[in-house]
Design goal:
Elements: H1 4-31, E1 36-46, E2 55-56, E3 77-86, E4 92-101, E5 106-109, E6 113-116, E7 122-128, E8 133-135, E9 147-153, H2 173-176, E10 179-188, E11 246-249, E12 262-264, E13 269-272, E14 303-304, E15 312-316, E16 323-329, E17 333-341, E18 345-350, E19 359-363, E20 368-375, E21 379-387, E22 397-408
Parallel strand pairs: 14-16
Antiparallel strand pairs: 1-10, 2-9, 3-7, 3-10, 4-5, 4-6, 4-9, 5-8, 7-12, 11-13, 12-13, 15-22, 16-21, 17-20, 17-22, 18-19, 18-21
């Protein structure tokens, strides 16, 4: 038998040798898949000690190098997966993945995603890195980052955290934590296709080839009160911080990951959101006469538009035509409104029909205009589109409109909440 001293030294030696092997295995798994990199992977109970922000601070060295060269990850896509094993009481959570740099001066977040605390829930979503929400200015991807982490928020987009005097934002932390979950993020290089979650998560299904059914003419699904994945998101966002998804019922979990947001729950609800669209009008309104959204000439006639960047095709069909469109805004959340047209139009955004003072306006410069709108409160937001020069409007004045939920932010006028910064 070994003396006690040698037995202790042997244990230390075994532990010392084992730790690098864990990191080596992770690197080998990642390196075996060209043009992909495991960015973040926490697989444990998330407790109150995490304070609502499970994180890598600093990030793992192999995930924190130069993302611009020799492989262009900086213009690639983040794929995000959250799998819930248990929660004290199942909560309607919103999760968002963010990256910080330079002592929190730079911050970039994926959309928020809606995640249920029901055991067995799996939510996946993705966001192209150039389309992530940015604070101040974009992160310098050629330099190391400071922190990778998730924000766990309630349905009101408030962090369930005791940082910055939040005091869990009115939630009972014992109902939220410990949250036994696995949070995983993979980056895929620009122009490449994600190989699949089965390469990173043991219990993820392996994609199988299926024959696509021939396309049929079906109505475009409209937003409803059913479960959504914000992979803004839209998942889902949340994040990222996530895009609404249309829910369909399925007897089995979704067998293949993709560039779309996917929600897999034990209730067999499967939600799939559209991939990030290219903002080119996909439908053309009639060359003359009103479009399918008329009458929408006043605020109370406004038709709804989703906040997942789905486009609507409209027409300013006469010189006096004014179009009103509404979307459901969430307090302290940024939205990007894009209008594409060959004609000169003006657009304004208001939170109330009677609120003519607090609006964000910009005249279009064909072929595209963008308005970044920050919602100070939760409620309907209205977009008003009118011809800049009524004498030139007519049946040929067509435009495409899209709204995308970007991220939850706090500015100087939002005095109730503090910035999302952890020191």
């Amino acid at each position: 038998m070994f003396p006690q001293f040698f037995r202790s030294m042997l244990v230390v030696a075994v532990l010392t040798l084992s730790l690098p092997l864990v990191g080596f295995a992770a690197q080998q798994t990642t390196a075996a898949i060209p043009n992909e990199l495991l960015v973040f992977d926490i697989n444990r109970p998330i407790t109150t000690a995490d304070r609502g922000f499970p994180r890598n601070d600093p990030p793992r060295p192999e995930a924190n190098g130069d993302w611009t060269n020799p492989i262009n990850f900086a213009e690639g896509t983040l794929y995000i997966r959250v799998a819930v094993r248990s929660q004290p009481k199942a909560q309607a959570m919103r999760l968002q993945f963010c990256i910080w740099q330079d002592n929190f001066k730079l911050e970039s977040c994926a959309p928020l995603a809606d995640v249920s605390g029901t055991p067995g829930t799996v939510v996946t979503w993705s966001r192209a890195i150039p389309e992530m929400w940015v604070k101040n200015k974009p992160i310098d991807w050629s330099r190391p980052r400071q922190r990778y982490g998730f924000a766990i928020k309630n349905s009101q987009n408030q962090p369930v955290s005791d940082y910055s005097g939040w005091n869990w934002n009115g939630e009972n932390p014992n109902n939220w934590y410990p949250l036994d979950a696995r949070l995983t993020v993979v980056v895929v290089a620009k122009g490449q296709t994600f190989s699949g979650w089965h390469n990173y998560v043991d219990d993820a299904p392996v994609p199988t080839a299926t024959t696509a059914a021939p396309p049929t003419a079906t109505p475009v699904p409209q937003p409803s009160a059913t479960a959504t994945a914000t992979a803004s998101p839209t998942a889902v966002t949340p994040p990222t911080n996530t895009p609404p998804a249309t829910v369909t019922q399925s007897a089995t979990p979704s067998p293949s990951p993709s560039a779309t947001a996917t929600l897999i729950a034990t209730s067999t609800a499967v939600a799939t959101a559209p991939a990030t669209p290219t903002l080119i009008p996909t439908a053309t309104a009639p060359a003359a006469g009103s479009d399918a959204y008329e009458p929408n000439d006043s605020c109370d006639q406004a038709n709804s538009i989703a906040t997942d960047a789905t486009q609507q095709a409209h027409t300013v069909h006469q010189p006096t035509d004014i179009d009103w469109v509404r979307f459901d805004a969430i307090a302290h959340t940024d939205y990007r409104i894009r209008l594409i047209t060959d004609s000169a139009l003006e657009a304004t955004v208001v939170m109330e029909c009677s609120d003519t003072a607090a609006l964000s306006a910009s005249a279009v410069t064909a072929p595209e205009m963008r308005i970044d709108f920050h919602a100070p409160v939760t409620g309907p937001a209205y977009i008003r589109i009118a011809p800049k020069d009524p004498s030139r409007s007519g049946g040929a004045t067509e435009y495409a409109l899209a709204v995308r939920q970007m991220a939850t932010t706090v500015d100087a006028t939002d005095v109730v909440f503090l910035p999302l910064v952890i020191r």
